[in-house]
Amino acid sequence: MKQLTPANAMRYSRQVLLSGFDLDKQEILLNSKVLQIGVGGLGCAAAQYLVSSGVGLITLVDDDEVETSNLQRQVLHTESSVGLNKCVSAKRTLTALNSDASINLIQQRLSDDDLSEHVNKHDIVIDCSDNVETRNQLNQVCINQKKPLVSGAAIRMEGQLSSFLPGANNSCYQCLSDMFIQQDLTCVEAGVMSPIVGVVGAMQALECVKILTDFGQPLTNKLMMFDGKSMQWQTFIIPKNNSCSACSVL
Question: How many CA atoms lie within 13 A of 238 on its CB side?
């Protein structure tokens, strides 16, 4: 177990000063392991705040390479990163932010078995993917492994955020996705405003820190939606679907 050093305490002093967030909670972050799926717009925003806030280990999973069109919103990548795998590019920037953080890279898509193995080795999963198939896969694996999942999405001028904690009375991502007609649009098809992914990704990082340290109230059984045009947030209850194929067995 890693011990919080005086240098760490000084570095994270602005967090430690928060009411209810003390040195013990900062030490929990230092020993936490986060599995992040996706290092695109959401993932770049989330990862930089997780690493900056003192998360000890983060594993980045992405098989894509950086393209010029990514630079508008994927802020860990630079012009010199074009052509590099996104995990490699992101690690370069994240290491410059916090050289004490351990950053593992998985530069390929994971099968159910491989994903299950990696989820089991981490404390929490943050879903920064951009397709429903991956989200449902992550959801099922997290349920099976009893791991918390923080899910975010952003498109056009809209964003959404939820946290899913496996439990007999808690809803899961599929309880949410089954309520809507699946369009599965991508940013390539519909577009996205750059700061929208930053807003949602930063909120995902915040939810992750809260869950890891038991600080504040996570968005369990709730969906928070952001409308960038009107600058309004709305929060909805996600009812548990007792016939959900993913979580009804809990």
Answer: 26
pLDDT along the chain (250 residues), means of 10: 91 95 96 98 98 98 96 96 97 96 96 95 96 92 96 95 92 88 60 94 98 96 96 95 84
Location of structure tokens 């992040």 = 36
In the numeric block, the tokens 């949410």 are attached to: 176
68: phi then psi, degrees, rounded to nearest 5 = -60, -35
> What is the pTM (predicted TM-score) of this model?
0.94
The answer to whether the CB of 129 falls within 8 A of the CB of 138 is yes
Q: Where are the beta strands (DSSP E) in the chain?
A: 33-37, 57-61, 102-106, 124-127, 149-155, 158-164, 222-227, 232-237
The tokens for 181 are 């007609």
Query: Across the beta sheet with 222-227, what order do the strands follow?
Result: 102-106, 57-61, 33-37, 124-127, 149-155, 158-164, 222-227, 232-237
- CB count within 10 Å of CB 104 equals 16
Cβ atoms within 10 Å of 163's Cβ, excluding its own: 25
